[in-house]
Amino acid sequence: MLSGLDIFSLAAIVFLGVPHGALDYVLISNMGNKIAYTTLITVFLYSIITLLAIIFWFLYPTLALFLFLAASTIHFGIANSLGIDLGATRSKLVMLASTIAQGGLITIYLPFGHWETVSGFFSVLGSDSDFIWLCLQAGFYAWIASVGILLVYLCSTKDIKGLFCLLVAGSIVFTFPPLFSFALYFCCLHSFIHYRRVMISQLGSSAFPPMSFIFLTVLAWSLMIIVGFGAGHNDFYKLADEIQNALVRGVFISLFALTVPHMVIVDLIIPKYKNLVLVR
């Protein structure tokens, strides 16, 4: 059963976190004259990738969840939501450690530390919890090693702010229920910072979100309703399923489907275009 705080957390993820991906259209549109004429094709491919990701989860939920956790570790880590100052190093090891340490807070440390609760959510998502648990155990060692490397770096550079943010974030994940911790990180750190960076870099700090932002956000919400309450035709996705389970499915399976093309845009394409470099 979901608690009141869990339902509030899911609502925050849907209404405050998910919309940040709707700004991907702005980034696609601003890729430059070189590919401006292919904007519609890019949007079409974005949609196809999202659809294929949903189908993939239907067919292979355990593998999809594993890939979701792994990809989100990289995506959250690269975003550097904790504001770790890496300017003083060119060490690829430190940069990799920062990525795994920051991203793994939510994708490794959180499910590992709250396994009794999180395993129930993973079962609702149709995955083999035993396999995911084995993966988390291996990932936890990598995360611990990464945190150790990052702590040494932060201490050596006397980055008190970065050290403080890392310790506070870790304490929050350890203390609060998993859905609330995820919502707090996803909405207040990752999504808000991404939203701010795109607005300042591409639209100007005083600009309001374009109509495409509202339209795509509504589409994303519609996708969550379809996936959660009526997308399937097998025992795992019956419309008559418990509403709370449908909420969990709708939110997280849709997040996976939307994260795949979002990562392609933000983590792979953006770095190649100077006019799309986001303010850090």
Give structural notes.
This protein is mostly helical and 280 residues long. The protein is built from eleven helices and no strands. The model has no long low-confidence stretch (mean pLDDT 86).
Helix content: over 70%
SSE topology string:
HHHHHHHHHHH
Total helices: the number is: 11
Main sheet overview = none
Rg over CA atoms? 19 Å
Topology:
Blueprint: H1 4-17, H2 24-29, H3 39-59, H4 61-79, H5 92-113, H6 115-124, H7 129-156, H8 160-175, H9 178-203, H10 211-230, H11 243-269
Helix pairs in contact: 1-9, 3-4, 3-11, 4-5, 4-11, 5-6, 5-7, 5-8, 10-11
Q: In brief, what are we looking at here?
A:
By secondary structure, the chain is an all-alpha fold.
Supply the key terms.
280 residues; mainly alpha; 11 helices; 75% helix
